[in-house]
Amino acid sequence: MTDRTVRIAGIGAHLPSRILSNEELSTMVDTSDSWIRERTGIARRHIAADGETTADLAEAACRRALDHAGMDASEIDLIIVATTTPDFTFPSTGTVLQGRLGITQGAAFDVQAVCTGFIYALSVADGFLARGQARNALVVGAETMSRIVDWTDRATCVLFGDGAGAMVLSAEDTPSTQRETGLLATYLRSDGRFKDLLHVDGGPSSTQTVGHLRMAGNQVFRHAVTNIAESMTTIADRAGVEIADIDWFVPHQANQRILEGVAKKLKIPTAKVVSTVADHGNTSAASVPLAFERAVQDGRIARGDLILMEALGGGFTWGAALARF
């Protein structure tokens, strides 16, 4: 008998060329390099240039992911873009990307789960591919968070940056005995009671504006550590693996203190946690694939490694994905 395995065929990432350092940021708002580093672990963030859009970043990441997979865009029949900062109210950034890549078959659309968006998108793509509705998918996390940051609010503007990461997922028929490869499990949660703790204060229907990001930082921190740890233990239990047997943890890059808090709670060695938050800040849905790509490129993540990805975002949304790379 055979099963349909969904494997990670390629990974790519892209960051805008403009870097906004803590030092430069301290000339714009009442903060300092030491204050930001101590509370967040962030040293710099990348900011999209005037006229540079989420689709621009996503396209660059996708082309690199396709190169890494050794595939042509014509082989893709599904595009899912996780973003909170789309180019347009409609059409979706996914369809914009589909047109730019010259793809004329299949489907393309966006999902919106804020920082958990990439995990949600992986789960949706897994369903499409596992049921034979597509063969090769581009799953993208792409954001221009700088467009919705209030640059006078030092509690939030120091945290966020722009970027994109993409994965190529491919479905393959494999013997049931080899099912321990590819995307093994996903776990999604949300709880709308906490929407006011992390939200944007605008939208087409409510205010006819884009709005700005607002966050109750201390409360978000407590929920993040608890809910992320819960999602990680739940998915490990469902997959029948021990946390200690996972090779690499690739978390949403929100704040170094959150990464350390979760690792401490679950007794995970910090050396097994991929952290890139210092270099690009919180890039929302883009941060998990950005961190994954960095660890692949520098040789930490290798083929055959067991990887756990996780995130928490506004809504609240949270979740995890387990894969054998």
Which keywords apply here?
325 residues, alpha/beta, four-stranded mixed sheet, 10 helices
Walkthrough of the structure:
With 325 residues, this protein is an alpha/beta fold. The protein has 10 helices and 13 strands. It has helices at residues 22-25, 33-40, 54-69, 93-100, 117-130, 154-157, 217-239, 256-265, 277-280, 287-297, and strands at residues 2-14, 18-21, 44-47, 78-82, 107-111, 136-144, 162-175, 182-190, 198-200, 213-215, 248-251, 306-313, 317-324. The strands form 4 sheets. Strands 1-7-6-4-5 form a 5-stranded mixed β-sheet, sandwiched between helices. Strand 12 (306-313) and strand 13 form a beta hairpin. Helix 3 packs across helix 4 and helix 7 packs across helix 8 (256-265). The longest helix is centred in the C-terminal third of the chain and has 23 residues, at 217-239. The protein is globular and about 60 Å long. It starts with a strand and ends with a strand.
Give the helices and strands, then pairings.
Elements: E1 2-14, E2 18-21, H1 22-25, H2 33-40, E3 44-47, H3 54-69, E4 78-82, H4 93-100, E5 107-111, H5 117-130, E6 136-144, H6 154-157, E7 162-175, E8 182-190, E9 198-200, E10 213-215, H7 217-239, E11 248-251, H8 256-265, H9 277-280, H10 287-297, E12 306-313, E13 317-324
Parallel strand pairs: 4-5, 4-6, 11-12
Antiparallel strand pairs: 1-7, 2-3, 6-7, 8-13, 9-10, 12-13
Helix pairs in contact: 3-4, 7-8
